[in-house]
């Protein structure tokens, strides 16, 4: 057999040498990182309202074996600690961090007979309401309530002081701290594996091979990669939602604190903390989306659910969450219904006992129903026609927040006939089963590639479906077809 000399081929380094220049859009890259940072920081966002484990006061609880002794001891202690002489003048809310106590004050008239707007009214049992009404009718001074002690000349008004002292379990607060560290690590891992690592690999492949196979060597091509929002697919990730669900269910005592801060309006800082803490209830809405997503996939009913826009979902929870508590104390019938939920477990002994689990479950159910009411509604015909007029490769075919972000790039606002890609959404429209998450709009994770030839703008803008969006495919359906969802 005749021998043949084999010429060695190029080494790996020369094959993978970059032939094309590629850069990232700085503005959208920074925005993408900020959105990721806001999601990663959300587990520790709770410490804006909560205290860190090593700074949490652990007051000694009073004797709970005898209710009468407990009432007398707690009353004497709180009257000595929080009075007109010890609290700041005019302050309606004070947090005593040394004793983990939240103090609310409200000036009332003796002619008032309605418990609306009273501090802590959502936790009043029947005995507390009866006590308040009898106190309003009592004209005696200097008794246990110390009426008339500080201003005996004015008997028409008095100051109601409500004190909520919490006795946390050290093991629980440290467990939540460690759980939040684990949640942060989980978020960082998912963001890297499902978005930023594929994005860097995509940039490397474009630098080596370009965006087409038939590029002429006599032309110089350069690219600008516009990153998207990597957080949208994680809103319906079962592991992420489960981590936040456990986190929030371990903190019902902080919901009570948030309500106290919310229902007073003079301390704006405390009010903002309450709204921000209640915004974490959005994960209950995401939990309902995950559950419905599983049900739709099992029953093959993906086509009956309209994708939920994460932007509008966040705004709805931000507004509706605090508004529910305000309505409860502002409308008498709502307050009566809430009180019934507090004592429905203790109908025979409802004077001195309340149970917040039922009322909290109803509140969680209302929050969880927000995205379902949106997704199960019939889509208006005019909206369907408008959606069909928008090209799938256009940045306008996106959620509200990402339309605003992408509109900051002038090149994306050009003629739509220059755009390519996005055909996978045509597949989603014709075959809803191809979507792994039919319940939420995840198009914000898509990237856009601006192509320039010989330092001039090209006639093409290519939409790149990144790894985060590829994760949103139903691979059980596409893999047997040998379909690649990377760039369509």
From TrEMBL:
What keywords are assigned to this protein? Membrane, Transmembrane, Transmembrane helix
Is RNA-binding included in the keywords of this UniProt record?
Answer: no
Transmembrane domains' residue ranges:
27-48, 171-192, 239-262, 274-292, 312-331, 351-376
Question: What is this protein's record name?
Answer: Transmembrane protein
